[in-house]
Amino acid sequence: MSESRQLLTDMAEGLFAELSGEELDTAWPRIAEGGFASLLVAEDRGGFGGDWGDLFAVLRLAGQHALAAPLGETIVAHRLLADAGIEAPEGPIALAVDGARVAFGRDCAAVLTIEGGELRLYPADACRFTNGEAISGEPRDAVEFVGEPAARASSNADLLALGAFVRVAQSAGALDAAFALAIEHVNGRVQFGKPLAKFQAVQQALAEAAEHCAAVNVAGQAAAVALDAGDAGFELAAAKLRTNLAIDVVVPVTHRMHGAIGFTMEYGLNRFTRRLMGWRSEFGNDSHWARVLGRQVALLGGAGLWRELTARSDRQLA
């Protein structure tokens, strides 16, 4: 880890731990004060000058601490706006994709969307929100654009894929946090005279969950490297699909390890698992990314797929 990333994650770790459980109106002023929104904006444009690996590390911590804020969406929006030469508004920014509900829409200063190769930034007063909630209880609002965008620019960015990367990074942290709670519980809970962790069935289930958690972290980091290289279509599809599949396994395992206590709202596990279940379908569900990845593999063919995988592996190791 570079020195700059270490400093960045140290700051994020402390701040997000303090803001865990806080509402957006309390958390956002401190997030803004930390300058996280400009993480991916070049230094010569007044930003931090970070890379996509930095973003993965920060959002992983946000997921690990159940940060209730559209931080990843705002960072991606600032990057796209900076690339287009558009000044970003103050406050959180939502990402709107294909009519899907947007995270924290009602609380955002603006909504960013890309339609027909055109980036459009709509201020909040040009949007009509229909309030809704995710399974986690966080706002997920339908948005209708009733006014003109404040800015437009051509863009070839894949907003769905970039949003998927945000959810992969957050999920990596939330999966690790849920897994850590399960480990803590089975080591402390005694049944039939010995800790639950000593039972073979428990060990087997946790080993499977650990494999999935590790795979999401690796897939997310690989996608970050590919984004920095400017060619990430394959890695982003693979990372989101792998994350969705991991959620399907890890969430039930962590709840089973806790027994009845794992299903109570008073216990902290639900802060992670409820978010994970919602994130699984946001910015592309299992079937969407399976189709995207499947089409790429089919076009490459057997020999082509092997060449593609080895070439991309070499780039990851470079």
Question: Could you please describe the fold and organization of this structure?
Answer:
The protein has 318 residues and is of the alpha+beta class. It has two domains: 3-154, Orthogonal Bundle (Butyryl-Coa Dehydrogenase, subunit A, domain 1); 171-317, Butyryl-CoA Dehydrogenase, subunit A, domain 3. It has nine helices and nine strands. It has helices spanning 3-19, 24-33, 52-64, 71-83, 159-188, 200-229, 233-258, 269-279, 286-317; strands at residues 93-96, 102-103, 110-115, 118-123, 127-130, 140-145, 151-154, 190-191, 194-195. The strands form three sheets. A four-stranded mixed sheet has the order 1-3-4-7, covered by helices on one side. Strands 2-6-5 form a three-stranded antiparallel sheet, with no helix packed on it. Strands 8-9 form a two-stranded antiparallel sheet. Helix 3 packs antiparallel against helix 6 (200-229). The relative contact order is 0.10.
